[in-house]
């Protein structure tokens, strides 16, 4: 969740005004997702929150690395204010992790068998009867080979 701006915080860098409406929309959608009570398991109710977190981080990543629409100063400010996940973006820059949905999917301690999540397996290597949805975040496949 982004920090609340107070009078003591520094003013946002130049260019923030152009992307602020989109970031506020993400914040509102996140608030709605947090307030809705999920039916089912805890992981099913947290899936929309993980997906919105991914979308917001991907938006900032695309603005800086793909479109080069924001400055380095604004990018660093957005990361410091928690508008995007710096650790997730760091993984996206590495080969093989370009489509990673969340950091929980690559942590071996999060799975029963000490491996990565099922969504990290390319769909070509999965059988027809294998589950295709991640239990952590609801991802349907974030392997870079897909």
UniProtKB/TrEMBL annotation:
KW Nucleus (keyword) present: yes
Record flagged with keyword ATP-binding: no
Main subcellular location: nucleus
Cellular component annotations (GO), alphabetically ordered: post-mRNA release spliceosomal complex; Prp19 complex; U2-type spliceosomal complex
An individual GO BP term: mRNA splicing, via spliceosome
Subcellular location, record wording: Nucleus
Protein keywords: Nucleus
InterPro entries on file: BUD31, BUD31/G10-rel_CS
Top-rank taxon: Eukaryota
Similarity remark: Belongs to the BUD31 (G10) family.
Entry protein name: G10 protein
Organism: Schizosaccharomyces cryophilus (strain OY26 / ATCC MYA-4695 / CBS 11777 / NBRC 106824 / NRRL Y48691)
């Amino acid at each position: 969740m982004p920090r609340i701006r107070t009078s003591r915080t520094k003013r946002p860098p130049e260019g923030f005004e152009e992307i602020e409406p989109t970031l506020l929309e993400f914040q509102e959608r996140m608030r709605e997702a947090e307030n809705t009570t999920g039916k089912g398991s805890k992981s099913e109710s947290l899936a929309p929150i993980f997906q919105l977190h991914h979308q917001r981080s991907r938006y900032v990543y695309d603005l800086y690395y793909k479109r080069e629409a924001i400055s380095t100063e604004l990018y660093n400010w957005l990361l410091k204010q928690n508008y995007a996940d710096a650790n997730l973006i760091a993984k996206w820059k590495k080969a093989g992790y370009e489509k990673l949905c969340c950091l929980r999917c690559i942590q071996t301690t999060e799975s029963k068998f000490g491996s990565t999540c099922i969504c990290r397996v390319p769909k070509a290597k999965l059988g027809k009867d294998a589950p295709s949805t991640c239990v952590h975040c609801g991802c349907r496949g974030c392997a870079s080979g897909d």
